[in-house]
Amino acid sequence: MGPAPGEPEADSADGLGGDGTVSSGTKVANQEQHARSATRPQRPAPPGPLKPTRARRRPALIALGLALVALSVLASVYLTTTLGQTYQVLAVTKEIPRGTAITSSDLAAVDLPTGPTLLKPVPADQLAQMEGKVAATDLSPGQLLTDTSAVDELGPPAGQSIVGVALAPNQMPTTDLKPGDAVRVVETPATGGEPPVEAPFAISATVIRVEPSTLGDQQVVDVQVASSNAAGLAARAATGRVAIVIDAVRAG
């Protein structure tokens, strides 16, 4: 049965009007669907498989690596051949004060590892040449002997002189004098004379050597003084009217 007079003709189920045209409702629905499709974000396409990269060879790095390997091998060979090798040098076995003659019993041969060193010890086969030389400085037990440790003759430095002073036991302290001790050589009055009113003449000096004298129980003390005082000290020492006062004892 057709529609009642005055009523619009109903749309067909497939959206087509009775005359076969698209209805207005269907057009609106299609337009809304198209708009939603246009505003929907598009998913990016999945990335394609990565192309395998080809490692580039660097000749300089390869050469450097080979050089380091070769250097390591050479170092290992050097350590292997030198490890355990020693050579004999001279070492001090007991204390040798400065200015004292060196004897063979003062030295001994010791083994020293081979290799680079800043030391220049005297080889053990030069023991005979070292005997009779004078210690240039105080030498301690265990110290390696070097070319500068011993000299043929010990001389004072520039501006200094060495004077020998003969002293009786009552002219020096009972404390043993040793090379390096700082002392003063003091002029004393004549036997039985009055003590000086003013400060007596005195010269600062450093003990170089002490040796027994061939004259009685005297000791001969070699002292180092300024060259300007050497003549005055020698003149007073010749009178026998001097005495030694210790100011500082050598360390050690």
Provide a descriptive summary of the structure in words:
Residues 21-32 have a biased composition (Polar residues). Residues 87-151 form the SAF domain. The chain is elongated, with a radius of gyration of 54 Å. A hairpin with a 6-residue loop joins strand 7 and strand 8 (219-226). Mean pLDDT is 78; it is low at 1-16. With 252 residues, the chain is α+β, with helices and mostly antiparallel strands. It has a five-stranded antiparallel beta sheet, covered by helices on one side. The N and C termini lie far apart (141 Å). It is built from four helices and nine strands.
Which features characterize this protein?
alpha+beta; 5-stranded antiparallel β-sheet; 23% helix; disordered N terminus; 4 helices
